[in-house]
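S1.2 Input.
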Amino acid sequence: MEEPPKYEAHVIVIPYPSQGHINPFLQFAKRLASKGLKATLATTPYTLNSISAPNVGVEPISDGFDQGGFAQAQNEEEHSILGASFFTNSATVCAIFCHIHHGMLTLPVKIEHLPLLLPGVPPLDVWDLPSFLKAPKSYPAYLAMKLNQYVNLEKADWIFGNTFEALAVKGISELWPGRMIGPMVPSAYLDGRITGDKAYGASLWKPFIEESIEWLETKPYKSVVYISFGSMVKLTAEQMEEIAWGLKDSSFNFHWMVKESESGNLPDGFEESTKQKGRIVTWCNQLETLAQQAIADQLTDAKFIEDVWRVGVRAEEDEKGNVRREEIVLCLKKVMEGERSREIRRNASRWRELSKEAISEGASSDDCINEFAHYLTCSTLTRKRRSPKVNQVFFFGIYEGSDLEDGRIRFLWVAFPITQGIEKYKFTPERFLQTKLFQKTEQLLFETTLEQKAFSEEVSCEHNKAFECEHSKVMTCKL
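S1.3 Output.
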């Protein structure tokens, strides 16, 4: 009888139970399994039967903590269980949420505080930010879920992001210290090193892939526009109507994913009037659909898609925040026809090759996964937890405005430990004292008096020009 395989380490990945999170988590589990680790995806009972992947176990886990409540979730360190956080957003979005979590960016984002300036990131104006940052009440549950991901991030032994070095902007690690292991898509679309890995293996809804492929194969090369807003976004009837008539007026072939709950918002007579040019489905497997040669990709991350990666165009909204049909037609023509279209396709091909290179054997993303796998298979006697180590103290001096008789000045100093990235932040005293970072950290407050001359020479503080605060002084020093 054949003996079951012996594994040196077992990795359990626990995604948020939505399609956009399960897919990359499942793909990461496949990559780890290909490195010789035992990989199991733990998911809610509701999604359990929708997931199946070779070499990856799938097990149910209740999201109600029914065996021991929150106390059970706090026991992982007692049993030497390591924890890794895997973020499926772009590195830039992660950096923005880090700002919000630490109190350096307040919601809703106000016009007078824009553009938002982050190291290595192009200036982000109001139309570049996710809608729930401008109007937090629009998606309260989703916003709360995103922010909760950062609550205990400092306890994570590893932090991963679903992107790769060439795609991420320089300097982003100063704000968000994640290791880049992406892109997490099936191996058949990248390096081909995982045999038979042609699909994610998870679909929470019944896809219409066979019918879609048959229809796409009847269309000319790069002649079909693919439209999808994912599983979470809900469009209004007005938005649906403008998209529908814009597609019809453009005269391009289209493949539109419309959730069953939104199908009633389609204009009367639209499907019948476009049945020769368009196909509407309630759900489809995106990778398989986009892989068809009839599809011309149009992505959705507007700022980077248009200005940084240059693989698409942004549709401008009207004063009500809607994109009108005339604008949709204009954007589709830019993407599908002419020199701009050719530039977009050249750039998309270049990024596709760079993504393949990143995950290939010995490249940047593969190296990060190898390092993680090697670390897990080390002897537990030599393995040390990789929790972020405090190696610096950040001092903030607040001028109290009371010059002493002998020429000395008095500062109130705030000192607290920092981890990677935080030392780059600078604040005004008022802004600093309002931050969660200040309020939640173990603080050491003390007064000191220094000669004004000695202060500038011995401490070498610099004027905080970033916020034009005349009396604030900032320094860092090694422990």
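S1.4 Remarks. The radius of gyration is 26 Å.
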